[in-house]
Amino acid sequence: MESVTFDTLTAAKTLERAGFDDTQAEAMVKTINKAVNESVATKADLKVSDESVHGKIKVLDESVKGKFKALDESVQGKINVLDESVKGEFKAVRGEIKALDESVKGEFKAVRAEFKALDDSIEGKLKALELSMTIKLGAMLFATALFILGVGLGVGKFLFS
Predict the structure, then answer these.
(1) pLDDT(52) > 80
(2) Can you tell me the distance from the alpha carbon of 7 to that of 29, in angstroms, rounded to the nearest whole number?
(3) Which of 16, 18, 63, 108, CA to CA, is 20 to 30 A from 78?
(4) Could you tell me the pTM of the whole model?
(5) What is the pLDDT averaged over residues 63-68?
(6) Which residue from 116, 135, 136, 114 is spatially nearest to 124, judged by alpha carbons?
(7) 14: helix, coil or strand?
(8) CA terminus-to-terminus distance, the chain
(9) Measured between alpha carbons, how far is 61 from 83 in angstroms, rounded to an integer?
């Protein structure tokens, strides 16, 4: 480990000028030098610490990237499964709608056929009724004509007799 540069001679002379004797100044300078060198970090210490921190950050970064990648893959997988499930549901619903559409079309076709049969039946009955009414009307006209003719003949006999 490197030591911090500490000018011990200048420090000792400063202490002697302040009234320390040589032994006291030397002891004080040694104590300060030892304390500084044991507690102050050097550039080399900081570099080692910096490299250690950067290494730990890099490992943590790789770990986080890996976890995010795994999470992304997991979420994407779940999205794909959900997407397929939703597509399947839509396909099933479309099939049900198509079947319902065919059923409704069949029902409408059957109702139209029933209406046509009913229309044909009503039309046939109306024609039969019309024919019957025509015959009855003809018979009534004929009877009326005979009556008029009979009355006319009777009145003529009455008038001309």
Answers:
(1) yes
(2) 9
(3) 63
(4) 0.43
(5) 94
(6) 116
(7) helix
(8) 173
(9) 32
User: Does residue 157 fall inside a structural domain?
Assistant: no
Q: Indicate whether 11 belongs to any domain.
A: yes
Q: pLDDT-derived band of residue 89, with 50, 70 and 90 as boundaries?
A: very high
Are 14 and 49 in a shared domain?
no
User: Angle at Cα 111 formed by Cα 105 and Cα 112, nearest 5°?
Assistant: 90
User: Could you tell me if 35 and 56 lie in one domain?
Assistant: no
- Pair of tokens at residue 149: 């003719």
Question: What are 92-133's pLDDT values in tens digits?
Answer: 999 999 999 999 999 999 999 999 999 999 999 999 999 999
Please report how the helices 8-17 and 22-39 are oriented relative to each other, as an axis angle in degrees rounded to 10: 140
Distance CA 12, CA 41 (A): 23
Q: Does residue 64 share a domain with residue 16? A: no
Tokens found for residue 69: 């990648």
pLDDT at residue 64 in the model: 95
Decide if 140 is inside a domain. no
Using alpha carbons, select from 42, 18, 38 the residue that is nearest to residue 30: 38
Residues 70, 116, single domain; the answer is yes
Domain housing 33: 1-40
Q: Would 156 be classed as within a structural domain?
A: no
**How many residues does this entry show for the chain?**
161
